[in-house]
């Protein structure tokens, strides 16, 4: 025991008493529909690898070739040790895919949001953010030191009231997730874009979970809502549907040059490995070349969604492969997650502060690689659990 441990034990005890305490679990296999945990083979229903690209042979081979050519580490930040070809090629490919002039990659979605928002706004500005925005968005807003106002989730009327009452500022930002990670619902992007135009604001969209999943071509929530031409820049991640790691911002060449010179999370951090950029290029090519992956994803989503609804389980207003089963009580949610684990399903309970108090849930995520047998086993597990306890 360390002499400083008594400083931390009260907080850990408090979290434990509230059923909020977490721990890291060691998974003994690759990210796939089936994983090995504590020597047992389980069905993984908690991965954002929506298209099943994280373990694709072509993606792994692209990373391996880049390691052989460029090594493991990049050495320093890109403005110090230089940009390696895979980083440049990835940004060109992302810009082309998104029909944008330019793109800039970051080490993670968290870093992208911190860098983007703290570059866009300052103390003389105001940010209006959806209540359910990702933590990285809220932290980026706070880091900017702009005035921060929260509008009710997806509530366009409340947002407009706040816009009408806002003080005189240099710049107004309206910030939202495109697809909300814990509820699986889409932001009303068309209405938000209209308000941004009407009140001379900038609409900033975090499309982490929409990228590769939403829209006719998988370009994301903006494509799905028909507002790609109305939103001048947005952020998305590479570690979900694309199966790799990192994040991007796309926009005009001028805007990307602005970020290169102002985003501290780009300026002052070592570049991600070239191998990761090369793997992402391969994943992006697969995404565009194999639209049947998205078709399988949505077919699987519909099977599981309809099965859960028929049981009478309470789901959010999801419009995506994210299917949150609302349990409510934290202790009950933990019990359901454990019962699922005993039945061969890995789907941890999502509890505060990740979601609001009283809305703990089992957040199921479907992928293109799940089989019908996987989904049937999940549904049978829930049916079995429902027979012994009330979840509705």
Structure explained in plain terms:
Helix content is 42%, strand content 16%. It folds into 2 domains: 19-48 and 291-386, Aspartate Aminotransferase, domain 1, CATH 3.90.1150; 57-289, Type I PLP-dependent aspartate aminotransferase-like (Major domain) (Aspartate Aminotransferase, domain 2). Strands 3-9-8-7-6-4-5 form a 7-stranded mixed beta sheet, sandwiched between helices. It has helices at residues 9-17, 57-70, 78-81, 85-97, 109-120, 135-144, 156-165, 189-198, 221-225, 253-262, 264-267, 274-289, 292-310, 330-342, 372-386; strands at 34-37, 40-44, 102-106, 126-130, 147-151, 172-177, 202-206, 234-237, 247-251, 322-328, 345-346, 349-350, 360-365. The protein has 392 residues and is of the alpha/beta class. The longest helix has 19 residues, at 292-310.
Major β-sheet annotation: 7 strands, mixed
CATH topology of the largest domain: Aspartate Aminotransferase, domain 2
CATH class of the largest domain: Alpha Beta
Number of domains: 2
Q: Report Rg.
A: 21 Å
Short description:
By secondary structure, the protein is an alpha/beta fold.
Helices, strands, pairings?
Layout: H1 9-17, E1 34-37, E2 40-44, H2 57-70, H3 78-81, H4 85-97, E3 102-106, H5 109-120, E4 126-130, H6 135-144, E5 147-151, H7 156-165, E6 172-177, H8 189-198, E7 202-206, H9 221-225, E8 234-237, E9 247-251, H10 253-262, H11 264-267, H12 274-289, H13 292-310, E10 322-328, H14 330-342, E11 345-346, E12 349-350, E13 360-365, H15 372-386
Parallel strand pairs: 2-11, 4-5, 4-6, 6-7, 7-8
Antiparallel strand pairs: 1-2, 3-9, 8-9, 10-13, 12-13
């Amino acid at each position: 025991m360390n002499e400083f441990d008594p400083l931390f034990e009260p907080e850990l005890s408090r979290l434990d008493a509230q059923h909020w305490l977490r721990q890291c679990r060691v998974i003994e296999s690759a990210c796939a529909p089936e994983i090995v945990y504590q020597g047992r083979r389980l069905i993984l229903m908690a991965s954002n690898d929506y298209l099943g690209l994280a373990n694709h042979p072509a993606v792994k081979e692209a990373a391996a070739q880049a390691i052989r050519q460029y090594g493991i580490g990049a050495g320093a930040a890109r403005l110090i040790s230089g940009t390696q070809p895979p980083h440049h090629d990835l940004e060109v490919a992302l810009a082309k895919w998104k029909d944008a002039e330019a793109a800039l990659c970051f080490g993670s979605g968290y870093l992208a949001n911190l860098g983007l928002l703290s570059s866009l706004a300052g103390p003389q500005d105001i940010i209006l953010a959806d209540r359910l925005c990702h933590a990285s968005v809220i932290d980026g807003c706070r880091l900017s030191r702009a005035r921060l106002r929260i509008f009710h989730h997806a509530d366009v009327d409340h947002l407009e009231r706040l816009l009408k009452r806002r003080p005189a500022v240099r710049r107004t930002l309206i910030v939202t997730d495109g697809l909300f990670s814990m509820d699986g619902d889409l932001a009303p992007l068309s209405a938000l874009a209209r308000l941004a135009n009407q009140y001379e604001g900038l609409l900033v969209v975090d499309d982490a979970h929409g990228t590769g999943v939403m829209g006719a071509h998988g370009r994301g929530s903006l494509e799905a809502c028909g507002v790609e031409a109305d939103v001048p820049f947005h952020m998305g991640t590479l570690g979900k549907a694309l199966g790799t790691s990192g994040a991007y911002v796309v926009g005009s060449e001028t805007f990307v040059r602005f970020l290169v010179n102002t985003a501290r999370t780009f300026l002052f951090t070592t570049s991600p490995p070239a191998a990761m950029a090369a793997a992402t290029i391969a994943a992006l090519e697969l995404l565009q070349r194999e639209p049947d992956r998205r078709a399988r994803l949505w077919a699987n989503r519909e099977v599981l969604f309809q099965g859960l609804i028929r049981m009478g389980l309470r789901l959010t207003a999801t419009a995506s492969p994210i299917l949150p089963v609302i349990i409510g009580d934290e202790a009950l949610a933990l019990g359901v997650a454990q019962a699922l684990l005993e039945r061969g399903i890995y789907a941890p309970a999502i509890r505060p502060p990740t979601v609001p108090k009283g809305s703990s849930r089992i957040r199921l995520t479907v992928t293109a690689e799940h089989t019908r047998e996987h989904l049937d086993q999940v549904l049978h597990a829930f049916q079995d659990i429902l027979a012994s306890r009330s979840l509705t």
